[in-house]
Design a protein that fits this description.
42% of the residues lie in helices and 14% in strands. It is an alpha/beta fold and 417 residues long. Helix 10 crosses helix 11 (282-300). 24% of the residues are buried. It binds zinc ion.
């Protein structure tokens, strides 16, 4: 519910949409059901208790991640009393994060929740603390050394190792995971009778030797840190410098980008990065276009980009100093202007700046000319402005049209008798 409210992006004093408003009202009125829930003040600890175990469960969904901890007290008679000690849930970040990473966040939440409890309850024997997750990937991450994984995963696993160690983690099927109730979300009406939540999975009340067999931990390729085996002479800068000559050798924009894509793919093969089938994908194609834009901008606006990186402004001598401009997160030089506040899409509001005398730009203009079915200057300019701001565009467009054979034949004056 909270995530939905947040995602609706309405201001603090705006009226909500009707559907959301109804949902909220329903939710609010159902909260009175919570009054029926009674939680005992004491854990079922008696003087006859001979063993205490802590069982922490964690889980995640795309909506939230959660952790819940149960205390199991075994009496001298052998009966096991289970009580819920603590639980915590967090709404998943709006930024899309992979489910295994969210599961790992859940595990970190459980580690932080359990650690102080171990100290307070004086359970010193680690064999009597168990942490459960339903994610095999998280288990595999926790079994491996943090240095094996990518930064985010490495940081989290190191933190979990520090708080709880890595040997107490076990696998629990999703359906028997009490934390699943919290990560999935439960209506207040269902909560009082939800045994899984209050008392953990059924097998927790019987001795360990009778617990169902657990799946063994599998290994994973997820988020493995890429080893840097690539030859140092094949860096991106090196590629950029050597590739510049291509723009004069290839006849069309598409051919240029496709060749670049294959070169980039060759480099990724060397770096042992996996890629798709034998065809160039749209993602690869677009990445190559951006590579070219970076190369061309770097070649023509090196000084300006340097100034922007250093001082965030371009000084008066440059042809770009009159335009508002900035470097985006991909290091591409873009223009800002009066369209800043409009509702146009990002590329139209912040077009990419391209220089005037560049073979790459000429190929781009020729492509746009063909795609607009030999369109005139104004039409081409409109199409180009959806993504680019080309310096001296009109002049260049006129030259492209002038050199186009098809247009030339169309223009030819009919001879008179
Ligand atoms: Zn033409």
């Amino acid at each position: 519910m909270i995530q939905k409210l947040w995602l609706s992006r309405s201001g603090w004093d705006n009226d909500l949409e009707k559907a959301l408003q109804d949902e909220w009202q329903n939710y609010r009125s159902s909260l009175t059901e919570l009054e029926k829930i009674k939680i005992t003040r004491w854990f079922s600890y008696t003087s006859t208790a001979c063993k205490m175990e802590l069982h922490g469960f964690c889980d995640a969904s795309i909506k939230a991640y959660a952790a819940v901890v149960h205390l199991v007290v075994t009496n001298k008679s052998g009966s096991r009393q289970i009580s819920l000690v603590a639980a915590k849930s967090k709404v998943a970040p709006i930024k899309t994060i992979s489910l295994p990473r969210l599961e790992l966040s859940g595990a970190a939440l459980l580690a932080k929740l359990t650690r102080p409890m171990i100290c307070v309850l004086k359970i010193m024997n680690w064999s009597e603390v168990r942490a459960w997750t339903d994610s095999q990937i998280v288990l595999a991450w926790l079994q491996g050394h943090p240095s094996k994984w990518t930064t985010v995963v490495a940081n989290r696993t190191a933190e979990i190792h520090h708080l709880l160690g890595k040997n107490i983690w076990r696998h629990v099927p999703s359906k028997q995971n009490p934390a699943d109730c919290a990560s999935r979300g439960v209506l207040p009406l269902e909560l009082p009778n939800l045994d899984l939540w209050w008392r953990g999975p059924e097998w927790l009340s019987i001795p360990e030797q009778f617990w169902p067999n657990r799946a063994t931990c599998e290994s994973t390729d997820e988020e493995v840190r890429k080893s840097a085996t690539c030859n140092s002479t094949l860096t991106n800068d090196h590629l950029d410098n050597n590739i510049l000559g291509l723009q004069n050798r290839l006849s069309t924009f598409t051919k240029l980008i496709r060749v670049t894509s294959y070169v980039r793919r060759f480099m990724s093969v060397i770096k042992k990065v996996k890629h798709g089938g034998s065809f160039i994908t749209a993602t690869e194609f677009n990445a190559s276009v951006f590579t070219w834009i970076r190369i061309v901008q770097g070649h023509h606006f090196a000084h300006e980009i340097f100034q922007l990186q250093k001082r965030k402004v371009i000084n008066g001598n440059s042809s770009l100093s009159k335009l508002g401009n900035f470097l985006d997160e991909n290091g591409i030089l873009r223009m800002t202007g009066r369209l800043y506040h409009s509702e146009l899409n990002y590329n139209e509001r912040f077009p990419i700046i391209l220089p005037d005398k560049s073979p790459f730009v000429r190929l781009l203009l020729e492509k746009v000319h063909r795609e607009t079915l030999h369109g005139g200057a104004q039409l081409m300019l409109n199409v180009l402005n959806r993504n680019y701001w080309i310096i001296g565009a009109r002049n260049q467009i006129r030259q492209v049209i002038h050199k186009c054979i098809t247009c030339y034949k169309e223009r030819a004056a009919v001879q008179t008798q």
